[in-house]
Each structure stands twice: as C-alpha cells, then as structure tokens.
Specification:
Oligomer: single chain
Structural class: alpha/beta
Largest sheet: 6 strands, parallel
Number of strands: 18
CATH superfamily of the largest domain: tm_1862 like domain
CATH class of the largest domain: Alpha Beta
Strand content: 15-25%
Helix content: 25-40%
Length: 445
C-alpha cells in the first residue's frame, strides 16, 4: 500500500480540492500519512495569491523532498499555473499538474509510476469546462464546503487569480445538489458555498434565465434539500446584493445571516486603480439592503492598505467608511506587490512602514466594531452548532459558532458529546476576548 502525504496552501477552494484528491487516493487503496512523515508520494496544493504564497509553496515542495529524497513530489494548483517554467526547473519537484486535472490525480500518478506518462508537466492549459470533483466527506466533521464554480473574469489590477484559475466555469446544479444530498445523509448540517468568484455562478450557462438570479435559484434549491440546517455563503461581489437578492435569501429558512462582501478600499479613487467595479456608495447600499432584511446580520470584509498611490487623504476616506459600516470582522492586508500584475508596475509604491501604520489603524477600528457586534448577544438566546471540545483556562468547553459565525462556548458536562449538535441557550458574557459564553440549556435540536 503506497503512502501519500498532503499539504494545502491558500483558499477554501484549494481546501475543497485537496479533500477531493485525498478522498480519490484513499478510495484507490493509498494510505494517507502526516506531511511531516516519510511518504512514498507528497502532494502540495499550491497557492499564488501573493509572492509570499509562491515562496511558501516552494518551501513545502522542498520540505517534502528533504523528508524523503526518493519520494515522488507532486506540485499541483495555482503556483504551477502561473510560473510553470520555474516549477519545472525545480529539482525538488517530480510532477506538475494543472488546476483542471486535479480530478485525474490517481490516473496521472499511476501512469507516472508505471513509466507510461509522456511528460512530467500535465495539462497546464485552462479549459472552458468545469472540472467535476465530488466529496462524500471532509476533514471537518460539522461543516462542508461545497465548490460551485471556478475561475474569475474580474481582472483586478493586484490579482493573479484569473491567470491561475482561468475564466468563470460554473458547476451543474444537479451535481451540487447530489453532493449536498450525500453529505447531508452522512450527517453534515452546515454547507458553505465556495468558489473563486461565486457571484458569477451561472454566468457561463446558456439558458435564457436571468443571469443575476442563477445564484439565488441555486441557494433556494439547496435550502429545500433534506438534511440541510444551515447555508453559509462565501465571499460575495457587492453588486450582486441587490434589494431583490437580499429579499430572496431572507425568505429562506436555512440561510445564515453572515455575509462577506469584499471591500478592499473605502475610497472611490483607490477602487478605480484596483479595477474594482463598484463605488463605496454602492457597497454601502448593498449592506443597507441586507440590514433591512435581517435583524442583526454579520457583515465581514477584506481591506487592502497601502495600495500604490494611496494618499493619506484616500486612506482617511477608507477609515471613515469602515467606521460608518460597523463590520463584524475585517481581514486587513498590507498591499503586497505581485509580479505579473498591473499594480506591480504602478507608480506611487508605498513603504512598508506606511503599510504597517495604516494596518494598525484599521486593526483598532476592527477590534472596536467586532466587540460591539458580539456585545449585542449578551443576555439573548442564540443557536450554536458545536464543533469541538477545547480546554480553556483549565476547564473543558464545547465550542462552536452561531448562525452569524460568532464563536461561542458552553461548559462541557461529563458524558456529553455535543459535536455536530445544534443547541439553543442564553449568552451570559465573554469566556475570552473572542468567545462568548452560553449558559447550559435544555432546548436542543
């Protein structure tokens, strides 16, 4: 029995694909071992979102070859797509597989080991077809990520992903629903719809239906699927959140009121240089639509500080904007020059010191807004899907998330197993700075 070790870098789409590749190998008789151990085969699912991601990908490939110089080291994914020549020259790498051939991993590996593979660089060209992969289980035990599309047509000036992932390709609705049906039957209750740009779901379909309604139509059918208790949406383009969209999802029983709308900047001029296709005012309107339909939705976002040409006045606009929105959480990134993008050759590149200072300022705003959002739940009843038992300050707690994705804990009782259990209770206060404490309750689902 051949042993195989996996290491995943990057986004939730990569994590989904890693789970699918791992599953296919196990189904074909391979034994999965930890990446730190000696294995016959090492699979590194690479990332290229930043230069740092490229470097981490190289480091993990080299680590694998060092752990077992006789092992087969396989590089797959986005770094392979964007810098194929460099990866092919790397002595640590034996086999390169493009993003659109991950589903064929077992067949490619066996051809390589049998010496029948004609080359070591396997199909790096993008395809116009969605690469169908299907999961029957995941590394998580309560939450399943469901990939609904691949690719991106946006071409933001700082981003390599359209080059790494290709143009938008949407998964058939029937395949999505079949996968969810199987996972729900296996006990999964929460489903997170993910993709490279899920707001573009269905844009490549030829049907006459209104393209803006295709994502909403999919969500409605998932909501009606047996066994689904929660639906969580991945990152949304602000423009897709129209009044009609917000009203449509608000009518669904299982939608989680937790919405990630990628902002990147609260300044119109900076958004223009980024080639983001909305204004701060349009973003704020989308947030308002969600808050009109949901009582207390969690709105999260990404913000880049120190983008080329960002003046102090432009940064101040972003600070004022995020203060007005009151996000539950902000993921704050210092702009990182990415070779091959338009932004990398723009004038007005800023120093690391400026980026650090601006990042720290937004972190202060984020901490205050995040606490304000959590404070709302103290004294209120809420629903939590518990995931794991943890020891915190010398005591054992079951920890999970509310529908708004607020981390919440309850004291563990002897003999209790709350893993993958939905439970209602009243929040009494904070267990830690980021975890709410829920009183034990009898009401369980």
């Amino acid at each position: 029995m051949k042993t195989v070790a996996f290491h995943n870098l990057g986004c939730k789409v990569n994590a989904y694909e890693t789970d699918a590749m791992l599953q296919s190998l196990q189904e074909n008789g391979y034994r999965v071992v930890p990446f730190e151990e000696k294995a016959d085969i090492y699979i590194v699912n690479t990332c290229t979102v930043t230069n740092i991601a490229d470097r981490k990908s190289r480091q993990m490939l080299h680590k694998a070859k060092k752990t077992n110089p006789q092992g087969i080291v396989v590089a797959v994914g986005c770094y392979v797509q964007t810098d194929t020549a460099a990866v092919a020259k790397d002595d640590a790498v034996d086999l390169l597989i493009g993003n659109n051939r991950k589903k064929d991993l077992v067949k490619i590996l066996e051809a390589y080991m049998e010496g029948t593979a004609s080359e070591s660089v396997i199909d790096i060209n993008h395809t116009n077809e969605y690469e169908e992969m299907k999961l029957t289980g995941t590394q998580e035990h309560t939450r399943a990520y469901i990939k609904i599309q691949d690719g991106c047509n946006q071409f933001c000036t700082y981003c390599m992903i359209p080059y790494a992932r290709g143009r938008v390709r949407s998964r058939k609705k029937s395949d999505i629903l079949e996968e969810i049906k199987g996972l729900a039957a296996a006990g999964y209750q929460e489903f997170v719809l993910t993709g490279i740009h899920i707001s573009s779901y269905g844009m490549d379909f030829k049907e006459e239906t209104d393209k803006d309604q295709r994502l909403l139509s999919l969500i409605r059918e998932i909501d009606a699927s047996e066994g689904v208790e929660r639906i969580r949406l991945g990152s949304l383009e602000p423009r897709i959140v129209t009044k009609e969209f917000a009203q449509g999802i608000a009518q669904l029983q299982h939608i989680c009121p937790h919405f990630h709308l990628s902002l990147q900047s609260g300044c119109a001029a900076t958004l223009g240089r980024m080639n983001r296709r909305y204004t701060p005012e349009e973003f704020a309107q989308s947030v308002a639509f969600l808050r009109e339909e949901f009582a207390h939705p969690a709105i999260t976002t990404d913000v880049i500080v120190g983008f080329p040409g960002e003046t102090e006045e432009e940064f101040a606009e972003t600070v004022r904007f995020v203060e007005d929105i009151h996000f539950f959480e902000m993921h704050i990134f210092k702009y990182s020059k990415r070779k091959g993008t338009k932004a990398a050759v723009m004038t007005g590149q800023l120093s690391e010191q400026v980026k650090i200072r601006r990042s720290a300022r937004l972190q202060q705003v984020e901490m205050c807004a995040s606490k304000e959002f959590r404070d709302f739940y103290i004294g209120k009843e809420t629903e939590v899907l518990f995931e794991e038992k943890k020891q915190i300050a010398g005591k054992e707690y079951w920890v999970g998330h509310t529908r708004e994705y607020v981390k919440t804990a309850v004291s563990a009782r002897t003999g209790d197993n709350l893993s993958n259990r939905l439970m209602h209770g009243v929040v009494s206060g904070y267990l830690t700075e980021e975890i709410l404490l829920m009183e034990q309750a009898d009401t369980r689902i």
